[in-house]
Amino acid sequence: MMLTKMKNLRYIFSLLSLVLFLPSCNDAFLDREPLDAISDVNFWQNSEQLLLAVNGAYAYLKAKNTVDMENLGDNTVWPTSTSYRLISSGNYNNDLGTLNTEWVNAYEGIRRCNHFLENYQKAEMSDEALKSRYAAEVRFVRAYLYSYLTFLYGDVPHVTKALNVGDPELYGPRDDRDEIVAWILDELTALADDLPVSYPNSDFGRITKGAALGWKSRVALFYGQYEVAEQAAKLVMDLGHYALYPDYYELFTSEADASKNPGNKETMLSRIHTTDVSMHNLSREIQVPDQSARWNPTKSLVDAYLCADGRPIDDSPLYDESSYAALFEDRDPRMKMTILSPGSPWGGREDGNEANTDNSTYTAPKFNQNRQGSVTATGYYFSKYCDLDAVPTYNRDENDIIIMRYAEVLLNYAEARLEQGTLTQADLDMTINLLRERVGMHPMDINELSAWGMDLREEIRRERRVELVLEGQRYFDILRWKRGDLLAQDVKGMKKEFILRQQDVESVPADEEGYIVFLTGNTFQQDKHYLWPVPLKQRDLNPNLDQNPNW
User: Fold this and answer.
1) Residue 141: how many other CB atoms lie within 10 Å
2) Distance in angstroms (rounded) separating the CA atoms of residues 352 and 373
3) Disulfide check for 1: which of 6, 45, 98, 526 has CB 3.0–4.6 Å away?
4) Mean pLDDT over residues 61-73, rounded?
């Protein structure tokens, strides 16, 4: 969002939460128009006030917690016990705090959006198109929030008006997910017409037509509405506005932030971060220099990267597991751009090689808990999304967090075509092979895959995994593919024999092939875990909320 308008949003959010969301009251004295504060009576008057209210709704788009949700899947593991790890491993109940937090935050945002949509027409504006655009932006945020609610909980209360204390709808039942999804898709179709294709770069971050249609393709894909997903993705492609950023690694650094870099035509929607106004801690968590790294790539992810010839590691003559460093050679180039490889710059201070005197260069994984360097639980670290300048200090990362980018739209289109049985080589060449061409990877060829005995669907899914890792989508892909078995597997890491200081891992268990076993006891019940339970606290507040199966 344009920096001049958004600089003080963190204060505006706090103000608006007091102004716009206090429960209504029937006391005649309290109903008097306030003389020294903003209220509904004197707020909804002009364009400037509407913009403040619209910007308040943007606070409910996920920021770093978009990336945090990656810990729900099988790409990475947080070393200490966290709510996300409990969910990923299937070891949680309906009183887990994260379940309620996700529910409450979504409905707070929905109420904010509903309140705006009930009042914005009161403003006197000569530019009716701008007023309609503001409403479309808020409607998008509301549809976005309902998307996550239905992804996670299934049936949820579908509320399209701002509820106050005493409203009977506060105690209503859950509504059918299919009906809500139909509403979401209709909303995204309609509101896209009131949004521009682009804004001036100084205003980047506002919802565009492409973001609305791209989100529609994501939602439709999740629910198996492949024709709808294909059509929405194709509409984005046909806008002619988006293109892949030339450098995959750089795309996730502050240098390529689309809010600052007009050359970035790939990022379609992101949460903007600004020095001393809105920052986060992602880079430091990835390579925290005196504790355990919070993001630990799994063996499952490392093994997913194809060799440079386009074949999987168990079927390629290029695969070399003779040493830790050899694992990174002759692989899909995105592997080194995502997972830290020996010889790379890093911010984790000491690594696991006592002979390495250059703390700016990584050579080996560290397991020694001496607080002198970044420790890994699996033997791997991430490099994607890690701005080394932000690692030394706490919560000083101003890198924008991507919510949607053009690469996903291309992947959505390819998968939707595949599931309808209409995918052609020409489709691959204008989608997935553009992603591979960017990094210099062997192209995907349908005939070649067939000759090698490789399954096309599995390769489409693999492509999505390695392209979008750390972007918060893996868990939701596993849910929609009904591949909960992937979450039930043990979480593993590197071969113990490659660790330089063996004394640091003497008590660490390994499997029969010598790979670190970090986490066991994972479970996934097919009749239960594809949906989160309705939070216990919400059912205590509203007894009319029924529960998901087997919870």
Assistant:
1) 22
2) 8
3) 6
4) 96
Extract the tokens encoding 333: 């180039």
CB 440 within 8 A of CB 479: no
Beta bridge partners, 492, equal 517
Nearest Cα to 38, choosing from 57, 24, 18, 54? Answer: 18
DSSP result, 465-485: HHHHTTSS-HHHHHHHTT-GG
What would the two tokens of residue 303 be?
């093994």
**DSSP letters of 201-223?**
GGGBTB--HHHHHHHHHHHHHHT
The answer to whether the CB of 517 falls within 8 A of the CB of 492 is yes
Sign (positive or negative) of CA dihedral 11, 14, 17, 20: negative
Q: End-to-end alpha-carbon separation of the chain, Å?
A: 41
* Cβ count near 541 (within 10 Å): 11
Which tens digit of pLDDT belongs to each residue from 475-508? 999 999 999 999 999 999 999 999 999 999 999 9
* Helix ranges (DSSP H) in 39-127: 40-43, 47-58, 64-68, 83-89, 97-119
* Structure token pair of residue 324: 């830790």
CB count within 10 Å of CB 33 equals 9
pLDDT given for residue 22 in this prediction:
33
Question: What does the block give as tokens for 114?
Answer: 């509903």
Give the integer Cα–Cα distance in Å for 335 and 345. 15
**Left, alpha or beta for 322 (phi > 0: left; psi -120 to 50: alpha)?**
alpha
